[in-house]
From TrEMBL:
Residues 17-268 form the CoA carboxyltransferase N-terminal domain. It comes from freshwater metagenome. SUPFAM superfamilies: ClpP/crotonase. GO terms for molecular function: ligase activity. This is Unannotated protein. Residues 274-532 form the CoA carboxyltransferase C-terminal domain. It holds the Pfam family Carboxyl_trans. InterPro entries: AcCoA_carboxyl_beta, ClpP/crotonase-like_dom_sf, COA_CT_C, COA_CT_N, MCCB/AccD1-like.
């Protein structure tokens, strides 16, 4: 482990991280607020619950709910959270994916970020073998943005039917409107529960039916819960109220005869170091390195009562700026790749490649802890084969079939983001800390490269480069890249599954590793060509 940082430095780091966490809380509170107090009060007055209230009643008492992508749509024209809540909860002892429309935000209408957020939830459910429960109350598509929703949105319904075909049960609890395309959610689910006098499921409401056919009808006869329970057969269960619908939903899950691929909860010891002190480790200036072993000691299991050994490091003297080794989190084994000094050299890339092969040989999930500025550049390193060694590492990551988890702690720049299993490489789960930044390169470096290119362009034309005048351009570029590399922005784009408090990392990873055990873990021995 690294030497203890001076007390003043530790206090400064903690204060900086707490400021970032306070800012994160403010942004996440916007998602929890939904459409605002007036809208929430109006729904409560109708006897309706809000999405998180429904989820709280649905999941087992005292169990955790891992909310996903709570900042979806941040920085866009749409409400933070994208008018839907998604996450993983435990219902009757079964881990399930839950999606819940937020009717307080434009009636739960789906905007482009809603669609992307549900796509991601569906992907997680499919990859990890989870049943899905949809808590439905939506007026359908946000019509002004239909051009961004209609064509890709069909995938939502395709995913429901594919889940059913894969024997991953799908359950719809309909609390209110489920109209137009939204009618296919209960229509395609394996089990459908509708709330009497509240659920309304039809392809076209009374106004559309009158316009299209001239027929006069009312909500109940056209698509009410009792009609669907008695006449159309779309409703499998008729609930008296919302709490009754949730009770029925829990009973459905209890009768699924669900069995995990890897049942049971393994025994584990608490970490060797207090996770609370994670706030003391991360410098506010990401150019300042920190030892990832200190993070590992706070998120991984200790051994026995003495907690003497938490991490068996692999190749500790070779490629030292990438730490690799074996550990356990909540009793489940993981292989860890963690950036130490920021830059990845050829040795680090070759070490990572071997380590990924070993993890696949033993069917061990991999955890990537990001703090990298990317692969090393320069004549010496190019001649030494940094491109082919980096390609070797990316080859191994791309073709590895054991589950991957990623946590971006600090920097995740350039191809280092790819080599460390960034979003483009489909980790099962990816979370960021409030200290994280991701971009093609750091803001100052990118602005500096643009200046060099502009100067070369001017000189090639025989013009005098105005360095003083270019300062304003550099400042604008730096500010833009700084904003676009921040965790709120990236999470809003759904480039992660959520920004988390570092102190919650162990718990979040423990939930994810438990979820992964719903499917068999099988490593590969087939990789692409490794260039010699």
């Amino acid at each position: 482990m690294s030497a203890a940082a001076p007390e003043v430095q530790v206090a400064a780091r903690r204060a900086a991280m707490l400021d970032k966490l306070a800012s994160l809380d403010e942004e996440q509170a916007k998602a929890v607020a939904g459409g605002g107090p007036r809208s929430v009060e109006r729904h409560h007055a109708r006897g309706k619950l809000m999405p998180r209230e429904r989820i709280e009643l649905l999941v087992d008492e005292g169990s955790a709910f891992l909310e996903l992508s709570p900042l979806a749509g941040w920085g866009s024209d749409f409400a933070v959270g994208a008018s839907v809540v998604t996450g993983i909860g435990v219902v009757e002892g079964v881990e399930v994916m839950i999606t819940a429309n937020d009717p307080s935000v434009k009636g739960g209408a789906s905007n482009p970020w809603t669609v992307k957020k549900i796509f991601r939830a569906s992907q997680i459910a499919a990859e990890n073998g989870l049943p899905t429960i949809s808590l439905v109350e939506s007026g359908g598509a946000d019509l002004p943005t239909q051009k961004e929703i209609f064509i890709p949105g069909g995938k939502l319904f395709r995913d429901i039917t594919r889940s059913s075909a894969a024997k991953l049960p799908t359950i719809a609890l309909v609390f209110g409107n489920s109209t137009a395309g939204g009618a296919y959610v209960p229509g395609m689910s394996d089990y459908t529960v509708m709330v009497r006098d509240q659920a309304k499921v039809f392809l076209g409401g009374p106004p559309l039916v009158k316009m299209a056919t001239g027929e006069e009808s009312d909500d109940e006869s056209l698509g009410g819960a009792e009609m669907h329970a008695r006449t159309s057969g779309l409703a499998d269960y008729l609930a008296e109220d919302e709490r009754d619908a949730i009770r029925i939903g829990r009973r459905i899950v209890a009768r699924l005869n669900w069995r995990k691929a890897m049942p049971g909860t393994p025994a584990y010891a608490e970490p060797a170091e207090d996770p609370e002190s994670l706030l003391d480790l991360i410098p506010s200036d990401l150019k300042e390195p920190f030892d990832p072993r200190d993070v590992i000691a706070r998120i991984c299991d200790g051994i026995g009562s003495g907690n003497a050994q938490v991490f068996d490091e692999f190749k500790p003297l070779y490629g030292p700026s990438l730490v690799t080794g074996w550990a356990k989190i909540h009793g489940r084994p993981v292989g860890i790749l963690a950036n130490a000094q920021g830059v990845l050299f050829s040795q680090e890339a070759q070490k990572a490649t071997q380590f990924v092969q070993l993890a696949n040989q033993t069917d061990t999930p991999l955890l990537f802890l990001h703090n990298t500025t990317g692969y090393m550049v320069g004549k010496e390193y190019e001649q030494g084969g940094i491109i082919k060694h980096g390609a070797m590492m990316i080859n191994a990551i791309s073709n590895s079939t054991v589950p991957h988890l990623s946590v971006i702690m600090g920097a995740s720049y350039g191809a280092g983001n790819y080599g460390m299993n960034g979003r483009a490489y489909d980790p099962r789960f990816l979370f960021t800390w409030p200290s994280a930044k991701s971009a093609v390169m750091g803001p100052a470096q990118l602005a500096g490269v643009l200046e060099i290119v502009a100067q070369a362009s001017a000189e090639s034309k025989g013009e005098v480069f105005d360095a003083e005048g270019f300062k304003g351009v550099k400042e604008i570029v730096e500010a833009q890249i700084e904003e676009q590399s921040m965790p709120h922005f990236l999470s809003g784009m759904l480039y992660d599954d959520g920004v988390i408090d570092p102190r919650d990392t162990r718990t979040v990873l423990g939930i994810c590793l438990s979820v992964i055990d719903n499917m068999p873990i099988v490593g590969t021995d087939r990789f692409g060509v490794f260039r010699p």
